[in-house]
Amino acid sequence: MKIHLYLVLLSVATAWCEEMVCHEDYNFMRSWPSTKANSCNASHPHCIDTHEEIKRRCCGADATWDPEPVCSTVQYSFASSWRRQCPYGADPTSQFCIFFIRNTTYPFKCPYEEVLPFAEYVGITNRYNHLPTWVPAERNENQYGDGLYLYTEPSEMYGLALSNYTFEEPFGDKRCMIYHHTNGFEAVPCSTPHIGVCAYLALNYTTNSYCSRMFETCVSSDYPANSKCFCLSENLRDGQAELAEFLKPYQNYFRSLQRNCLIGLEQVDDEYIWISSKTKLNYTEWADDAIFGDSRKYGALTEKGWKLLRYKNETNCIIYQKDIHLEDCNLVLTYNSAKNQFFLEMSNPKAVVVSSNGTPLVFCFTDASSNELVKRLNLNGSNTFGPIHDGPGSYWCEAFVYPSVKVVKSNAVFLR
Prior knowledge:
Blueprint: H1 2-13, E1 16-17, E2 20-25, E3 28-32, E4 35-36, E5 39-42, E6 46-48, E7 56-59, E8 73-75, E9 91-93, E10 96-104, H2 118-128, E11 133-138, E12 150-151, E13 165-167, E14 176-180, E15 184-188, E16 194-201, H3 210-214, E17 218-220, E18 229-233, E19 242-243, E20 261-268, E21 271-274, E22 279-280, E23 298-302, E24 305-309, E25 318-322, E26 331-336, E27 341-346, E28 362-366, E29 375-376, E30 384-385, E31 393-401, E32 406-409, E33 413-415
Parallel strand pairs: 13-15
Antiparallel strand pairs: 1-4, 2-3, 5-7, 6-8, 9-10, 10-16, 11-12, 11-14, 14-15, 17-18, 18-25, 19-25, 20-21, 20-23, 21-22, 23-24, 26-27, 27-30, 28-29, 28-31, 31-32, 31-33
């Protein structure tokens, strides 16, 4: 009798409800993983109820599932879906977010300022688009000849000449450039419609944003160049800074966390809101083991997603947000005749945009060259340079600056 009772208890204790795949909702097949008797589990993807919380399903003592809960929506996990790393309208591919703008003239407007250089995205767009695309290069009106199509993008190519292109006569109206994936560059009128490409690194791959360069523990919160910074701190306390608000799914990339870090999410009057902006949730990113109720109402970010804390002081880690305040950057170029040397002074060097490899996008030019109308000079990372010896002409400098990511120019100095 004792042996029989033992076997019955053992069979109940080890009983499981088998995995169940349910009907398709929200373009997903929802599955309930195998679950031990007398316990509950979340579905994959997570079933979210009308209170914006994970709805779990329980396995009864007899190893049968309770009725399936009603889902208001499902949670599209950032961690499992690289598509969510990009803003709406972008085509996600690996670590890039790419916008294709159909039938546009040149120049065209990109949604955000800090676009990737043409050379970095042209190979990727080849796989998705086989039509000619605009190249960020053009020549000035009424200038004719070789070496006149100059790159205009915010990259280390700025001001360099594009060569090896074709064109159809007459040449006069061919001021812009397109790229054919089969036969290279072609000069065309700027008014003809082609595809414009705006490519960006996904935020979690961006290492040289203004925020990360200015503040050691900060990253950029969004794609616009003037976005707030998200910063990590173990010294500040709530009330000393504005807690970070992840208003968009792709902002949940601060994921190298081994602990709970307080964020600006709270439950107020049975609703979850971003507390500073009073914005209601329009998506969720709950961790699998998030606990609801039990006086838990303060949001925290972990490497697995959001959790809820009972008290704000449960953790000494917070993620806060801060605005970017930048003074204008002015460029002044002077010439020292005794040293035969130019010196470039920048009023706010921190406002200068840097390339993906950390090079400041500052460039100097002259029209004194005997074989180029405009020649870009080699600065080698210095703010001093000498004149060329071809002849008289003007010298000036240009830089891309935050937050506009547009060019500012210095004064011009003329040497005879």
